[in-house]
Amino acid sequence: MMFSQAIVRLPAANFADGLTTVDLGRPSFALVLEQHQRYCQALESCGLSLTHLPADADFPDSTFVEDVAILTEHGAILTRPGAASRAGEVRSMQATLGRFYPELAEISAPGTVDGGDICEAGQHFIIGISLRTNHEGARQLGNWLEQRGYTWSTIDVREVPGILHLKSGIAYLGDGLDDNRMIAIDALVDEAALRPFELVQVSPSEDYAANCVRVNQHVIMPAGFPLLQASLSALGYAIIALDMSEFQKMDGGLSCLSLRL
Ligand code: CIR
Hints:
Elements lengths: L4 E5 L19 H17 L3 E5 L15 E4 L2 E4 L10 H9 L6 E3 L11 E4 L2 E6 L5 H13 L3 E6 L13 E3 L8 E5 L12 E5 L10 E3 L2 E5 L3 H9 L3 E5 L2 H4 L10 E2 L1
Parallel strand pairs: 1-2, 4-5, 7-8, 10-11, 13-14
Antiparallel strand pairs: 1-15, 3-4, 6-7, 9-10, 12-13
Bound molecules: citrulline.
């Protein structure tokens, strides 16, 4: 799948007041902005045109735009985020996505879905059941996907330590055609839903690096994870490595900073 556009949102000054489960210190706002800017430049260097949304201090986690919508080649659906403090992020994204999609579906109560739990892999989607995405949300999303010709499966990550979302632990590297690779952390490699894929395993010391994004001819990955970087380079991927330290402090990964279409 080739991407031509991405939607990003500038981090708000109160970014550090967002949700986190890790104890890595408080992010430096100056560094957050710098890392976000480099991330945007990386997407542009992969050929994408960006839609920049303004910072929204009502929602400190709102820079993690991936969580509020699922975009496919056959339409888009707004999620219903599992964290109460993030529920209101959906409305402003609705207005933005309305410019790209004539119709927008939506997950409804009692379903919850965070986009970080949804891994697109060509014509198949893997849905993570997590503290943010529940079975009802997965069912609604699965029905919507089936109506568009996609198949889906689930992985329950609730008992996997250190995993906020499914995509904290896996990333689809493929192009949906002749390349069917998936990055996966050790704790997930035996999942039945991953059997169809050729796995690139992440060493446990580099778990955070599992959240990569393939954007056209490049794989964007977090900097500072030499083992995974070497594995991906050896497989022939062109890598862009970005410092993500300040986003990591808030449980955020590379994929969650953009919606790609
Ligand atoms: C949250 O807990 O919701 C944010 N602090 C981080 C969300 C990261 N999103 C993602 O990995 N898709």
